Structure formats: structure tokens, C-alpha cells
Amino acid sequence: MFFKSVIGQDTLKRRFIREIQGGKLAHAQLFQGACGYGSLALCLAYIQYLFCTNRGDDDSCGVCPGCVKIAELQHPDVHFSFPVVQSISKTSSPLFQEWRSMVKAQPYADLTTWIEQMDPKMRHPMISSDGSQEIIQKLTLKSYEGGYKVMVIWMAEEMGVDCANKLLKILEEPPPKTLFFLITEQKQRLLTTIQSRTQAIVVPPIDHEALCAHVVARFSIAPSEATTLCGRAQGNLLSAMHIVGADENTQNYREWFIQLMRVCYKKDVLEMMQWADDLAGQGKERQKQFLAYALHMFRQSLLRNYTDQALIKTSEEEFAFLKNFSRFITGNNIFDLHQSFNDFHYHIDRNANARILFTNLTFQVMRSLWAA
Fold it and tell me: What does DSSP say about strands 28-32 and 78-81: parallel, antiparallel, or unpaired?
């Protein structure tokens, strides 16, 4: 991965290059930011530049043995750990080739992308105590090429407590020339003892101009359309790709949202219960994505009600629905709706009973709509 292949993030690129050239490397670094901002891509570019034997002033050469191995994610001294569904595998190694294929195709992939590739049942993965033991075993081996040993822990917030605790000692006192790169979207879910042993690197949203330029070049769309699209994506490449693609999942979220609002407004309890059953049958990650989509639609409703409509970032289908729906989202109910959907996202993530949660959600939405 070249630095030039990472979209935007010029400030961080310059910082990393200075650190490597100066030989001042923190032994454990925590990359914080959404996957769509480029956390993993930046990390891979950093490692490739570190292992490059013919570095340029602003990027790796791409042709030396170190660069070639890193680009293929096959360097013997660079190891990866990532969440896995425990009933499929207890550790990352048996699924590494599948994960490697995903990352090579899309280094901005997120946990949902990985789950969809790994498990048709869409079960939530984790890094277990078996995973931590695997990490320790790999790092106790001597460096194959005599240089740095690197461990990348992707989606580190999915480490179980036992796993995290087992890594504390090696994080604080790693073997010589050993580097840790932890990548997380939700720093607050990491143990404070893990956070205190790492150098925090905040990966911000991709700047608007860089994201627009990438979208125009990649999807061959007009600059004016890209400006609107990237405004909605808020610096997240994955969000921009979903909007451009209008994929099946996004269409499902829209249909589920519209149906929920309609049956709740009609106070049709039987239809509300049926809707809750349908959503409960979806995988956890789709349920979480739907709740996030609903929050987006509530925000767009407020923008339509209280600002210039030019600020609205929706598809034509969504815009048509909001034309009549947005008047039901007001200052009287937006805070309750926002709190409810955030709370349900939290509980779904912690394996609460989905049927009970979504049934409760329908009644809360019904009360909120009639409070407008």
C-alpha cells in the first residue's frame, strides 16, 4: 500500500514519514477512526514504508522485496489479528486468506463487510483469549528477516476482556524491535489499560475535496453530483460507495424505515408486531446498520424542516418520502427518537433479545410520531 494510494490524510502521511525517517517509532500505536476514513490503509502504507529498503522522500519504492511482500500481505514478520466468529474459528490464522483477499480488494473495508464475507448467518465476531495466545506466540518467535516484527490488530475493540488482559504485559514490555498497530472505530470500548499503553493516532474524516476527487475518478460521475454525495458521506469512503452503488442493503433499510413509520403512524399493532418479527430475523449487523440509517433519515427530516433544502443529502426516493414525512419530526420528538434508536443500537450490540427490542421500538416510534 502506497501513501499516495491513501485518499487524503496528508497531515498524517507527513507525520509518519518523519517518524520513520527519524527512527522515532512508538512501539504501540492506536489508530482511531472509522474504517471508511482509511485507518487500515494508512497503517499498511506506514508498514510498507517502514520495510522499504529504497524509500523515497514521500513514499515507498513499491519494487523492493519488502514492498512487494507487504503489498501482498505476505511478509513473514508482519502478522495480523482480527475478529472471527468463534463457532467458525477460535483464532485469526485459519481465516487469514479470506481476510487478506478482502483487504487487498478493499483496504477501507469495515467489520460488516468482513462478517458478510465470513459468515452467512451474520453472527458477531470477536478476538478471544485464544486469539491473544496466538498473538503472543507469533511475537515470541525471532524475526525472520532480522528486522522489525509487527502485529496489526484490526477492530481491536472486539477483543474480549480476557484477551485484552493477556496482552497487557507484552504491550508494555514487547520483545526488541516489536511494533503493535491497533486499529479501532470505537476507542471507548477498549480497556483503559490498553489505551494507556498505546500512542493515540486520531484518523479524521477524509477531507471533502480529496474524497470528491476520488469519487469522480472512480465512479465517473459529475463533480456537482460528487459534491452532494460526499457531503452526505461526511468524509467516509464506504458511505460514499454505498450511496453511489445504491446497493440492495440500502434499499432494504429504506423500505424497512418507510414501513415502520407508516404502520406506527396508523397504530396498526398487528403490522407493527409483524415488522418487529421481520427485523428480528435479520442478522445483528444489518439490524445495527438499519438503526444507523434511521438516525440519518431523522437528521434529513430536520434539515428539510428547518434549513434550506439544498443541505439535504438523500437519494431521489428518500427525498420523495421526506416530502410528506418530515413534518412529523419536530423539536417535540426528535430527542426521544434519537435516544431510543441509539439505545437500541447499544443493546443489539450486546446481544439483547431482538424481537423484544424491536417490538418495544415500534411502540416508542408510534408515541413519538403522535407527539409531533
Answer: unpaired
**C-alpha–C-alpha distance, residues 215 and 207, integer Å:** 12
* One-letter amino acid for residue 146 of the chain: G
Q: Which amino acid is at 203?
A: V
Q: What are the 10-residue block averages of pLDDT along the chain, 372 residues in total?
A: 94 95 92 95 97 93 94 95 94 95 94 90 90 93 88 95 93 92 94 94 94 90 76 83 65 88 93 94 83 85 76 70 88 89 86 91 92 72
Contact criterion met (CB below 8 Å) for 82 and 59: no
Strands (E), the chain: 28-32, 78-81, 149-154, 178-184, 199-202
The tally of CA atoms less than 13 A away on the side-chain side of residue 37 is 20
Distance, CA of 276 to CA of 156 (rounded, Å): 32
Domain shared by 192 and 307, yes or no: no
Same structural domain for residues 132 and 42? yes
User: Dihedral angle at the C-alpha atoms of 217, 39, 43, 46, nearest 10 degrees?
Assistant: 60
Pair 143, 253 in one domain: no
In terms of Cα–Cα distance, which of 362, 222, 344, 333 is closest to 288? Answer: 344
Separation between Cα atoms, residue 181 and residue 30, nearest integer Å: 6
Asked which of 167, 202, 237 is the last residue of a domain, the reply is 202
223 three-state secondary structure = helix
Residues 241 and 255 placed together within one structural domain of the fold: no
0.85 cut: is pTM over it? no
177 and 265, same domain (yes or no)? no
190 and 50 belong to one structural domain: yes
Please state, in angstroms and rounded to a whole number, the distance separating the CA atoms of residues 39 and 235. 13
The domain of 331 spans 246-371
Same domain, 182 and 37: yes
DSSP class of residue 144 equals S
